[in-house]
Amino acid sequence: MKNTILTLQQRKQNQQKITMLTAYDYTTAKLMDDSGVDCLLVGDSLGMVMLGYESTVSVTMEDMIHHSKAVAKGAKNALVVTDLPFMSYHASIYDAVHNAGRLIQEGNAQVVKLEGGRAFCEHIKMIAQASIPVIAHIGLMPQSVLALGGYKVQGRDYQAAKDIILDALAVEQAGATAILLECVPADLAKFITELVSIPTIGIGAGHGCDGQVLVYQDMLSMYDGVSSKFVKSFAPIGDQMKQAFADYCQEVKQQQYPASMHEFAIDGEIMIQLKSEFSK
Ligand code: KIV
What we know:
With 280 residues, this protein is of the alpha/beta class.
């Protein structure tokens, strides 16, 4: 059964945790879908882990649509959530609604996500009014890396923690479907989760959220970039891939691969005829 935003709501009500992983292509999306992951996030983190950028700020709407379409094809059951990239909604509410619509119509997303709290409530309200479910991403907002001067835990002092609570309450009021909490203290995230009626999904926000999300290259140790304290490596796939690539190179060089079992045959008589016609 295809998951919808109602699935997320039911999970919160029934106190069952929501699972979300990032996905950026058909093959990985299908593997995750087959494994029972509830939601696939086509995150703008694709700028870093798929395109090799230093941050997410260079990611475009075209990038997001391209990857979202591929993920949607592999997501039979999982809910597909796609990020609105930097500058696709900041300049105007028109941009926000128009680009949210493009992610749904062209990217085949079911839900969009944007980074922002109180400052973006009008955008959230108008996207929701256009019948597009929207997740508000608060706490650490990676698209603000230039203004923040780096990726840091948010909400550690009284005022910063209060600001995140006010953001959460405001985006719920504005019509957000769920809240993504990134890099905030666990007790604060748990408190917000109890305070709001919409589901919270955490990354670096402790166990008290209604669900968890991770960037899949992080949880499989595939990405060479900086890793955070909150990341757990579930399997050393990066090392296994490197070993497999090295084995391939060695076998090709030593003429062990391809072996006869990997080759297609042709009738010997045909080869004799061809050789007699073409031999120098
Ligand atoms: O883009 C992304 O992958 C995200 C996660 C960090 C949650 O927003």
